[in-house]
Write a structure and sequence with these properties.
mainly alpha, 2 strands, 39% helix
Amino acid sequence: MNAPKRKPIPKSLRAEIHAKCGGRCAYCGVKITIREMQIDHVTSLELYEAYTYHTDMEGTNPNCPENLLPACRSCNHYKNTYTIEQFRTAIMNWPYVLARDSVTYRNAVRFGLVVPKPHEVEFYFEQIGVDVPETLISPLHERHFKTKGADPKCGRDLEDSRG
């Protein structure tokens, strides 16, 4: 299976995605302009075909608005092909990775300049109640192939979104 080819996102759809989180990154909540915004695929293009093949979502469009969230460059690059839950887990592990790998971090903790506060991560889009269909969040490797909630199928093509 090959990942779907990246298609340019029309300006009207970019504006719609930017507005989803009020001009903020869906993950960390930092304010971003539409020019700075990167568009994140909740289910990455690399996993989309495999994921939809094993679900009743086969044939859906990976560029439908339900699969897209606004992201800052840092979050989008770090999330990469992670699912939402894999990304959350990776972030929650940062304090442990830093303590293991960084002498500077350990010294900053020792001198009280940094205070580690491990906690559950709640993404900005979750805090403000932006709905992302459960089927787009469930990771492929955990074999969660049941459609829950709203119908995740999106027949809207990029050409239909042009304004």
